[in-house]
Amino acid sequence: MEESTRLGYCIVAGSFVTFQFFFSAVSPQLSLALSRRYCGLTAVKKCEWNSRCVSTLHALIVGLFCLYILLFDGAINANPIWGDPYLVKLNVAITCGYLLYDLLLLLRYWKMLGDSLFVCHHLVALYAYGYVLSRGVLPYFANFRLLSELSTPFVNLRWFFDTVGQPRSSWFVLANGLAMTVVFFLVRIAVIPSYYARMLAWHGTPEYARLGLAVQVAWIMPSLALEVLNLVWMYKIIRGFYRAFCRSQERKAACSHGD
After folding, report:
1. pTM (2 decimals)?
2. Distance of CA 46 to CAs 8, 35, 40, 143, 164, Å?
3. For the chain: N or C, fewer Cβ within 10 A?
4. DSSP designation for 205
């Protein structure tokens, strides 16, 4: 086993323990200090609150690391299939540790947090990233996928606003909703053509053939499955933002008539 692979598995374990500790110990104490509303939440809401704090932390770490790799790692940009995967393995290992933590959390608190779409997403991602960690293949494409995490803080912020009772028609809730919609579209939907264009550019090359059928299937099928999930989530986000915007306009109209 290569040194980078061993290091990757160690980071997976460390990431799992760290995120679990943040969920159990750090987030509750930090939330109590920063938000008076947290103390009054139900056990169910506190559980999801802490889960989303961990989700935001993971998204910021992995998303920013992903941007750094895309901008400055010349090896994977030159050869997206077999380029030096060292930095990508580190980023993927952090994500795999988080996915394992979150999957266990979903199963443990299924009645509170259970979501079949998230379970499918996590399992598909772990299946594909397993090849990246064990064989160091497809570093560019694996890292490119992590761009999607940049939309997560906005998604979580919307939930926090709802939980503390902030009206959905308020201007900063709408601003976050607009930012969430735009960023989600940019990092999950708009990038689809460039992702598959690069995939097709390498299809049929000796590097692609060297992957073998198992890796090719683990690359292409999960990618397609994730696109379906992203399109479903994009539809829900647009619908939610549209409804919130319409409600804000109706309230403005009602206020103007009242005056």
Report:
1. 0.87
2. 32, 12, 9, 32, 12
3. C
4. S
